[in-house]
């Protein structure tokens, strides 16, 4: 997987701006590494360590499903897949266009050699040459005007082909990943706006979900105790009838709430930064 990411990053960064390269670093290093390495140690026992103050069969599972509709780790994995997919498609498109440009260049060089070798007979020497030369006009129209960009790759100065179609495809990938980032920030807020116990008494607190403060999209707290509540007719009320009827809720306790808050804020803030970077890359 790391080899594939390296190839994609190498290809896409040839055509990206400084902001684009910064985006790749944040996504494929600072965000992806949490999902594939560090996060597993914190979230490995998230369901087994979720304990409620009742042994009623099914109650704890229902409360956990209400508390964590989607696991943080799985959500981040889907999020990274969605925001990285446009870059992957651009990688394959730019490789295809580079191949077409190289084929056109080879055909033009071959034709030039034939012209220089025999000024009186300019016809292709074999069927393959004839086939390649017939495709030259079509390739020229498909590729368009080819420019050359010079970039540093390591310690070497390299020339890469650049066309308007590659330019438009790159900015289309930015627009799509910007949309995906915004959609997942909103979905994440909707899924993870867990009611902090403090907010039940002060709902106007700017850091509470009831305040509709935009900052809360990026700064969500995971409570140490979750009040599993349910109205008559809901799954929670059915599974935890005695507890809910007597106390109004089932108290459930979350494992490592502080660590999960740190991870949740870390990933949410990076999502917000990546969203801003993508927006700036479109307008600058």
Automatic annotation (TrEMBL):
SMART domains: CNX (SM00037), Connexin_CCC (SM01089)
Organism annotation: Ciona intestinalis
One family name in Pfam for this protein: Connexin
Main localization, broad class: membrane
Membrane topology classification: Multi-pass membrane protein
Segments crossing the lipid bilayer: 22-43, 75-96, 168-192, 263-283
The protein, known as: Connexin N-terminal domain-containing protein
Keywords, sorted A to Z: Cell membrane, Membrane, Transmembrane, Transmembrane helix
GO MF, one example: gap junction channel activity
GO annotation (BP), single: cell-cell signaling
Subcellular compartments: Cell membrane
Domain Connexin cysteine-rich stretches: 180-282
Span of domain Connexin N-terminal: 41-74
Gene Ontology CC annotations of this record: connexin complex
């Amino acid at each position: 997987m790391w080899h594939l990411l390296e190839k994609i990053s190498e290809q896409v960064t040839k055509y990206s701006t400084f902001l684009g390269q910064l985006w790749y670093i944040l996504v494929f290093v600072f965000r992806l590494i949490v999902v594939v390495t560090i996060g597993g140690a914190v979230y490995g026992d998230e369901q087994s360590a979720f304990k409620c103050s009742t042994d009623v069969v099914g109650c704890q599972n229902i409360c956990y499903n209400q508390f964590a509709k989607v696991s943080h780790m799985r959500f981040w994995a889907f999020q990274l897949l969605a925001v990285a997919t446009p870059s992957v498609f651009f990688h394959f498109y730019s490789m295809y266009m580079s191949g077409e440009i190289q084929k056109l260049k080879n055909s033009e060089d071959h034709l030039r050699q034939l012209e220089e070798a025999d000024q009186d007979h300019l016809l292709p020497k074999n069927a393959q040459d004839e086939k390649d030369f017939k495709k030259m006009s079509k390739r020229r129209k498909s590729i368009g005007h080819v420019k050359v960009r010079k970039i540093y790759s390591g310690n070497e100065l390299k020339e890469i082909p650049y066309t308007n179609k590659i330019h438009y495809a790159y900015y289309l990938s930015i627009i799509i990943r910007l949309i995906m980032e915004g959609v997942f920030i909103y979905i994440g807020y909707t899924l993870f706006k867990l009611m902090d116990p403090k907010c039940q008494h002060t709902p106007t607190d700017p850091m509470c979900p009831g305040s509709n403060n935009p900052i809360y999209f990026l700064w969500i707290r995971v409570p140490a105790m979750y009040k599993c509540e349910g109205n008559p007719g809901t799954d929670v009320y059915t599974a935890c009838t005695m507890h809910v009827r007597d106390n109004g809720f089932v108290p459930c306790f979350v494992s490592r709430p502080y660590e999960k808050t740190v991870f949740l804020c870390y990933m949410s803030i990076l999502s917000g930064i990546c969203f801003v970077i993508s927006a700036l890359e479109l307008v600058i």
